[in-house]
Structure formats: structure tokens, C-alpha cells
């Protein structure tokens, strides 16, 4: 039943109409179905805009913009440091860092554009919103997969130090990163194609374009696939990360690197663990959002609050910390950055230190 997609205070006539509309209607190529879907989308987006304005949640746009712009300044600088230095771009760990930063930049740009359009209530076509949704999911999943590979790369470097460069040469790393982008993109764009084929030609516009709303409607026909993609994928990555860290501790616990409370190993593990938590937590919150999206006993205001905070705060935190926890903590990147800075600025920094 689709009555839950209407505003909580919707009319009795609209609720009755939706109660008579079952799941199979969305699988038929019928003009009346397209009209019903258009009514559902219009009602939901209009009520979403009203909730945003009632609670003044558009002010979340200000800190989101500041954090996004600051990150979009830091990430390109680190990417330049990596790709301008031959030694860095030949190292697997730096290529993984660069791929994470690139995926984060794509995500931040799409997120900022979406926030701007939603704030000014610009009318966006349904197809364009679906494409933005697919790109956003792709960039987020690519970042998650890459940070998982960074843990695997650390485990391989410690476990097989003599054969590490033979296992992961630069050419193989490039192929792996291409495979990561392909794996992250294949399912979201497949959903876009399937939805376009099921809905047929349409000129619907949306006042609010959100990944939650797009996937919420897609979820009606592809419930199992979407939950497998997000939840099972997250569990696999989490399990792989825990396995690698546990094995790393077991291999290195007799080497004395964990005895000092502020040893480099402990600080590195703490920094990586914090960043991994920040990357994975919004994904689990988003899975909760998908679950709440179709619950009739959850008010629209709760859904709007959870979605806004997750998109404007939780999603941005790991991308704001990543340049500093993953980028500048590497001594080679810091040294390269200092070499690229003007000479008088470097002298001032040396004087202050």
C-alpha cells in the first residue's frame, strides 16, 4: 500500500485512491500508472518542501557549503602533490588516497548542487534526478570500497613486505581502481535504466531531488536488490576491515610497536578507525532512512530531519577530515606540499616552528 507516501495530513480521497493502487501498477506500461506515479511524487516533494520551510532546515545549507568549499580546496592540492611526483603516483597507497579524494570531490559537488537546487526549489526532471542519484551513490560507494582497499593494502604491506610490490604494482592498482568504479556504478545505473523502461516516456518535474526519494520510489519494485546492495555490501566491507586489523594486531603484537600509548601505530589505527567510522555511519543511517520511508507510523517531519542531518552533516564529516587524516599524515605528501609552496611562506613556517 502506498498511502504512506502522502503527507501525514493528506486528504481522505487521496488516501483512498492510493490504498487502491497496489505494487503491480508500477510494473505496467499504462498512462494512468504514470499519472498516479506523478501524483505521488508531486505530493511527496511538495510536503517535503513544506517540512523544510516549517523547521527552517534550509539553514543547514550554510555550514554544508562552507565545509564543501573548504574540502574542495584541500583535495585538489593533495591530488596535485600525488600526481606531480613520480614516486608518489607509483605507490599503491597514494593511488588509493587519490582515488578516495577524487570520489569525495565528485560526491561533494553533486551534493552541493543538489542542496542549491532544493534550497531554491528548482524544478528538476525525474530523469536528471535519477542520473544525479546514480552518480551520488556511485561516488559514495567508490569511496567506501577504496577506504576498504586501503586497509587491505596496509595488511598486505605488513604481511608480505618482500613480495608487496610484486603483488600490487602500479599497473595492477590502476586496473583494480577501474574495477572499483565499475562495481560501484553498475547497479545504480542499471536501476536507472530499469526504471526508465518501466515508467516509459515521462516529463515529470520534481521540486526536491534527493537520493532518498529517488531510491524510495525505486525500492517499490527492487526492494531486495537495493537492501542487498547497501546492507550486505557494507557488512562485507566491515568484516574485511575487522579481519585485516585483527590479523595485523596478531602479526605485530610481538614487535613492541603497541607498548607506547602514543606510538605511531596506535595513533594511525585511531585515525583510520575514526575515519572509517565516519565513512560507514552515514551509510547505515541512510539504510535506516530507506526503512523509515515506507513506514506509515513515522511522521514526515522525522524523515525530513533525519535525511537533512545525514546529508548536510554526517555525509560531510569524513570528507572534511579525510585530507588531514589520510593525506597530510603521510610524510611524503607533506614534504611534497611544502616544496610546492612559495619560498617566503616556507621560511615563515620554519621560523614559527
From TrEMBL:
GO cellular component, one term: membrane
Subcellular location: Membrane
One Pfam family in the UniProt entry: 7tm_1
Transmembrane portions of the chain: 60-85, 105-128, 135-156, 176-194, 228-246, 267-292, 304-326
InterPro entries from the UniProt entry: GPCR1_Superfamily_Member (IPR052921), GPCR_Rhodpsn (IPR000276), GPCR_Rhodpsn_7TM (IPR017452)
CDD domains: 7tm_classA_rhodopsin-like (cd00637)
UniProt domain G-protein coupled receptors family 1 profile: residue ranges: 74-326
Name this protein carries in UniProt: G-protein coupled receptors family 1 profile domain-containing protein
Originating gene: gpr148
Amino acid at each position: 500500500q502506498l498511502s504512506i507516501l502522502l503527507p501525514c495530513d493528506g486528504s481522505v480521497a487521496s488516501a483512498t485512491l492510493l490504498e487502491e493502487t497496489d505494487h503491480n501498477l508500477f510494473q505496467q506500461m499504462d498512462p494512468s500508472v504514470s499519472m498516479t506515479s506523478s501524483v505521488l511524487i508531486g505530493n511527496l516533494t511538495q510536503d517535503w518542501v513544506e517540512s523544510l520551510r516549517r523547521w527552517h532546515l534550509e539553514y543547514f545549507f550554510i555550514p554544508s557549503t562552507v565545509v564543501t568549499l573548504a574540502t574542495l580546496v584541500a583535495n585538489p592540492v593533495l591530488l596535485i602533490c600525488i600526481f606531480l611526483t613520480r614516486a608518489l603516483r607509483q605507490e599503491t597507497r597514494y593511488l588509493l588516497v587519490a582515488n578516495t579524494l577524487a570520489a569525495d570531490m565528485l560526491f561533494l559537488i553533486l551534493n552541493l548542487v543538489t542542496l542549491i537546487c532544493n534550497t531554491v526549489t528548482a524544478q528538476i526532471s525525474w530523469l536528471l534526478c535519477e542520473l544525479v542519484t546514480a552518480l551520488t551513490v556511485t561516488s559514495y560507494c567508490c569511496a567506501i570500497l577504496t577506504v576498504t582497499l586501503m586497509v587491505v593494502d596496509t595488511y598486505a604491506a605488513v604481511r608480505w613486505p618482500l613480495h608487496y610490490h610484486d603483488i600490487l604494482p602500479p599497473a595492477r592498482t590502476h586496473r583494480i581502481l577501474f574495477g572499483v568504479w565499475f562495481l560501484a556504478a553498475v547497479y545504480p545505473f542499471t536501476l536507472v535504466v530499469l526504471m526508465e523502461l518501466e515508467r516509459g516516456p515521462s516529463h515529470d518535474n520534481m521540486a526536491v531531488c534527493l537520493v532518498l526519494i529517488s531510491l524510495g520510489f525505486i525500492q517499490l519494485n527492487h526492494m531486495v536488490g537495493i537492501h542487498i546492495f547497501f546492507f550486505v555490501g557494507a557488512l562485507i566491507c566491515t568484516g574485511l576491515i575487522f579481519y585485516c586489523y585483527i590479523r595485523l594486531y596478531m602479526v605485530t603484537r610481538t614487535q613492541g610497536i603497541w607498548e607506547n600509548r602514543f606510538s605511531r601505530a596506535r595513533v594511525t589505527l585511531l585515525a583510520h578507525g575514526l575515519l572509517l567510522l565516519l565513512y560507514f555511519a552515514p551509510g547505515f543511517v541512510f539504510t535506516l532512512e530507506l526503512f523509515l520511508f515506507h513506514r506509515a507510523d513515522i511522521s514526515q517531519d522525522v524523515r525530513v530531519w533525519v535525511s537533512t542531518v545525514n546529508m548536510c552533516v554526517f555525509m560531510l564529516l569524513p570528507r572534511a577530515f579525510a585530507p588531514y587524516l589520510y593525506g597530510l599524515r603521510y610524510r611524503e605528501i607533506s614534504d611534497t606540499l611544502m616544496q610546492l609552496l612559495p619560498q617566503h611562506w616556507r621560511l615563515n613556517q620554519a621560523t614559527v616552528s
